Task: structure prediction
Amino acid sequence: MIRKKILQKRIKKLEESKKELLLFNKELKVELKDIHFRCNDLMKKYNALIGEINLKYYELLPEQKYEEEAKKRFLMKTGGILDLKEPKSLNEKIQWMKFNENDPKKTMLSNKLAVREWVAKNIGEDYLNELYGDWSNFDEIDIDKLPKRFVLKANHGSEMAIVVDDKNKMDIESIRRKVNKWMVTNYAYKGLEMHYKDIIPRVMAEEHMGASGKDFLDYKFWCFHGRVEFIKTLNIVNGEVIEECCYDREWRKTPFQAYGRKIKPDFDKPALLKEMMEVSEKLSKEFKFVRVDLYQQGKDKIKFGEMTFTPGNGEHKWVPDKYDKILGDILIL
Result:
């Protein structure tokens, strides 16, 4: 009887200890989550600060130093030695074209406003998203005249877009700061992509296409000498790549990937793949190399995204890395 009571007391203490441990574990998880959030936030701020420093550094850099600086960046970004005298890999050839092909048309087509005229002329206005307007700064925008959902983006660079799902819930001050910062940033100096230099910054409002991965996917057609050689498919949510994969013209997964992250090899073959390739080849036929970005909305609509002459700024990490050279062989300078 005494043993039984002693055992019961021990069991009770063990149960109490278990509850305390579970509570401690729960509190620890909350604290770790908070620390993780703070670390991510600090890292974003750090990267933003480094970006600002680099931007100012490149703005002040003499033009004759561009190639030397590109070689430093290339080593840091890819771990490779950049050869601009005899470029062989795709990355090297993209870098070579940055400094040796001064084509005003590249500037015009990198401008997300000016390219609309080119698209309308070559493949038709039906491929363009509806444009609600463009302005020189945020305060010129009459939000009341815009639909409930829209996308704000800058015309003169990459990674400058804000998806507005409900304008009544917009953080006006935060968006104002972002947009007005875009307007005083010369994107050319982000990575010495000088065909962006002379684009006059504008902020534009475009049609909201829906939810990425559900209502549309992003298809990037890599065109060499007017021919689509492969397609990179992306699912992007809130500016972050959730899934991606590279496919050939027959929609077979390629033996290489760009970056090789978050690979999803089973994206459905787009119903309008043939038409998208035809459209991409029409838009790219005048150029040695360009990436044409398109979207498929539902099963029956193709929308133009942009034309990019220096994807990844010629600093892609190809997996396996031997394909950087294999793809480079396709591009004849």
About this structure: The radius of gyration is 25 Å. The chain has a mean pLDDT of 89. The chain has two domains: 61-109+213-333, 130-208. The chain has nine helices and eleven strands.
